[in-house]
Amino acid sequence: MAVARYRDIADDLARRIEEGEFAAGARLPTEEQLMVDYDNASRNTIREAVKILKTRGLVETTQGRGTFVLEGTVPFAVTLAGIPEPPAGGAGGEGAAYRFDAQLQGREFENKDPRVEIQRSNPEVARALALKEGTRVVLRHQERLIEGRSWSLQTTYYPMEYVTLGAERLLDDEDIEEGVVAYLKEALGVEQTAYRDRITARAPDTNETNFFTLRDTGSVVIVHDRVGYDRDQKPIRFTRTVYPADRNQLDLVVGAVPASPWAYDKGGAKKGGSS
């Protein structure tokens, strides 16, 4: 019963924060007041409830001053499908779809130059690309920021064979302006015609915790895996994108649809806008 009680209180406080009863920067009621508000709950129960709010990134406690509501994060809507690669009429490049999403949402987008390396494929990458384990692959690592804040980490794996066949630009540590998918079609005649996606969630690893500045406990990242295939259903690339769950929403668009009912304005309020 005690566990359910503090979680119930945490959920109710989170609701009150979301509905604006406690605005960003406002101080939460004291422990004593919260004990009264929640039917004489024990001090430990209130402290555990507040601890959950801290884990969710909703509040922060300053010694001697109290517990304050943090500024809310406006989710970035990532369109997983429904936008061509690159978007029709838009700029190309390896971050084209993300840039297009950012433009629709009025957000400032930054795509860092890729970091490139060559590795032996591990069992997971080998399976995804239908290669023998240990076959060399090219990795292109991409860091993306929204309004100066780390928003996603992406690594795409390509068979090293593509480089030996003439796609040397895969090894360049700079953005491929037309996008890698378009480049492979032009350079090698390798055309992506289909892809399969998988979405999972897990705790972040140390690198992700540091890059996204996440809390050591309670944080969650969303992992979006995509394998692209050519006309013969041969895999041509394996992309893994990691998103911190506290600042992203993933949208799947099929067909012609109106503006998203889940879009947010820059103040964090829902609107009838974009994505």
Automatic annotation (TrEMBL):
It comes from the Bacteria. PROSITE patterns: HTH_GNTR (PS50949). CDD domains: WHTH_GntR. Residues 3-72 form the HTH gntR-type domain. Keywords: DNA-binding, Transcription, Transcription regulation. InterPro entries: Bact_HTH_transcr_reg (IPR050679), Chorismate_lyase_/UTRA_dom_sf (IPR028978), Tscrpt_reg_HTH_GntR (IPR000524), UTRA (IPR011663), WH-like_DNA-bd_sf (IPR036388), WH_DNA-bd_sf (IPR036390). This is GntR family transcriptional regulator. It comes from Actinomadura gamaensis.
